[in-house]
Design a protein that fits this description.
Strand content: 15-25%
Number of strands: 10
Shape: elongated
Distance between the termini: 19 Å
Number of helices: 6
Radius of gyration: 18 Å
C-alpha cells in the first residue's frame, strides 16, 4: 500500500499530478493504480526516461529496499495511517516506511498553524490521528482543558502535545526519513517511490494480511 498525506504539500501535489484514484477513509487516503473496474480514473503517465529521471534526481546512487507500506508525508493524516496500521497489526512496525522532507512528524502542520496564528482547531476532539476516538478528550480532561464549542475542539498546543504522546507511545519518534520524493512509478503489481536517497518498492510481506478497512 502507498499512502499519501495530502495535507503535506509536495506529497499531495504528487499524487494529484499522477492522477491516481483515491479511496477516502475516516483518517487516510489510499493511493492505488485503478483497473478497468475501478471507476474512470486514469492510469499514471509512463515513467520518465532514464535520462530525464537522472536530470531530476542528480548523479547519485539510491539504495533499494522493499516495504509493505510506504507513507508519503508525515502530517496528521500520515500519522493517522501509521497509528491505525500498527493498532491493527503491531508486528508490522518494521514493514512501514514514512518519508517526509522535514524528517519529523507534523512539521509542516505546526509551521502553518504558527505562521497563521491559529490557536485552536476547528474539528471536534474525537477527530485526531489516534485509533481511539476518546483518547484526546481524556488527555484534555487530565490537563484541565475543556475545549471550545459543542464539540470541545482542542487548542493547538494541547493537540500538539497529544500527538507527541501518540508518536512516543507507538515507538515512532524516529520513524520519519528526511527524504524528498521525486517520483512514484508503477512496479509490476505494486508501486515504486523514488526519493532523494532511496528506491522503495512496496510489496506484501509473506504471511502478512492487509489491515481491515476502517468503517466509513
Amino acid at each position: 500500500m502507498l499512502y499519501v498525506d495530502e495535507a503535506n504539500g509536495p506529497a499531495g501535489a504528487l499524487y494529484r499530478r499522477l492522477g491516481f484514484s483515491t479511496a477516502a477513509r475516516q483518517v487516510a487516503y489510499r493511493v492505488s493504480i485503478p483497473d478497468g473496474r475501478a471507476g474512470r480514473a486514469r492510469r499514471p503517465a509512463a515513467p520518465l526516461p532514464a535520462a530525464a529521471a537522472h536530470e531530476r534526481t542528480g548523479p547519485m546512487s539510491r539504495r533499494s529496499e522493499e516495504a509493505h507500506v510506504v507513507v508519503l508525508g508525515a502530517g496528521p493524516v500520515g500519522l493517522a495511517v501509521a497509528l491505525h496500521l500498527l493498532a491493527a497489526d503491531p508486528s508490522g512496525r518494521d514493514s512501514i516506511r514514512v518519508i517526509d522532507p522535514s524528517g519529523g512528524w507534523l512539521t509542516a502542520w505546526r509551521d502553518r498553524f504558527r505562521r497563521l496564528e491559529i490557536d485552536r482547531l476547528r474539528s471536534p476532539a474525537v477527530h485526531h490521528p489516534g485509533p481511539d476516538p476518546g483518547a484526546l478528550l481524556r488527555w484534555m480532561a487530565e490537563r484541565g482543558a475543556t475545549g471550545s464549542g459543542p464539540y470541545r475542539s482542542p487548542d493547538t498546543a494541547t493537540f500538539e502535545s497529544f500527538c507527541e504522546r501518540l508518536v512516543a507511545d507507538a515507538g515512532l519518534t524516529d520513524a520519519v526519513r528526511a527524504e524528498q520524493v521525486h517520483e512514484v512509478q508503477p512496479a509490476g503489481r505494486g508501486l515504486r517511490a523514488l526519493t532523494s536517497a532511496t528506491t522503495v518498492r512496496h510489496g506484501r510481506r509473506a504471511g502478512h494480511q492487509p489491515a481491515p478497512a476502517h468503517p466509513a
